[in-house]
Automatic annotation (TrEMBL):
Sequence intervals crossing the membrane: none
Repeat keyword on record: yes
Keyword field: Kelch repeat, Repeat
Protein name (database record): Galactose oxidase/kelch repeat superfamily protein
Length: 255
């Protein structure tokens, strides 16, 4: 499956060149992260974990150095030329509380202080210059409802209780749902609730969530898996299953 990129200025999609990877990487689950002028794609090759990077400058794919502790199922986000990757599972399935920073200008990974708790299938984002991680699982059966805040200047973590809006899983078990579906627009955090099919807005002062509107697509049809909810300029693109099982997409304007 080829990768595609969306140009918000021209409102057009463009198809990227194929990755020169092995069949294992092509067929395996993958995670992606945009940082600076690069797109990082994480996956597995026959030899183990691998990262491929696409450059918007050269329009080519190349191998990216591995993290200091290679793993998958992590939370991540980027701010300008840097990205932070936290938690996840190592090759033996152990749930991690490690954190690493990637600098796209020099292509290197730096180990950061550990989080307070291990987590996998979590979601990371930047807001007001700080990195946050919410949700996820601390073990193979325990789901987290808290969040953690990382201060880049002080290199310290702070736990935030009940920050994840999906603590009520609705009609399906928490372990069945996707990682949290959140996006930040103009330093305002939004969430697409997998159980209620609602877009919610985060109140930083009161650590609470309020409903903004219904999602234009179905998030509960596959427990949130396969639904894209991202920030793009002042909009929130939502791509996923439609109400009658077909695929559809929509742009929600941030207010």
């Amino acid at each position: 499956m080829p990768w595609e990129a969306f140009d918000p200025m021209r409102q057009k999609w463009m198809r990227l060149p194929r990755i020169s990877c092995d069949d294992c990487f092509t067929c395996a689950d993958k995670e992606s992260l945009a940082v600076g002028s690069e797109l990082l794609v994480f996956g597995r090759e026959l030899s183990g974990f691998a990262i491929w990077v696409y450059s918007l400058v050269t329009h080519n794919w190349s191998k990216c150095p591995l993290m200091n502790l290679p793993h998958c199922l992590f939370g991540s986000s980027s701010l300008g030329e840097i990205a932070i990757v936290v938690g996840g599972s190592d090759k033996n399935g152990n749930v991690l509380q490690s954190a690493e920073l990637y600098n796209s200008e020099v292509g290197t990974w730096q180990t950061l202080p550990d989080m307070n708790f291990p987590c996998k299938l979590c979601l990371g984002f930047f807001m007001d210059g700080k990195f946050y991680v919410i949700g996820g699982m601390s073990s193979h059966i325990d789901w987290l409802t808290c969040g953690e805040e990382y201060n880049i200047e002080t290199r310290s973590w702070r736990r935030i209780e009940n920050m994840y809006p999906g603590h009520d899983a609705g009609t399906f078990h928490p372990t069945m749902r996707s990682p949290p579906l959140v996006a930040v627009v103009n330093n305002q955090l939004y969430s697409a609730d997998q159980a209620t099919n609602e877009v919610k807005k985060y109140d930083k002062v009161n650590n609470s969530w309020s409903v903004v509107k219904r999602l234009p697509v179905r998030a509960d049809s596959s427990y949130g898996w396969g639904l894209a909810f991202k920030a793009c300029g002042n909009s929130l693109p939502v791509i996923g299953a439609g109400g009658h099982g077909g695929n559809c997409s929509a742009f929600l304007e941030s207010r």
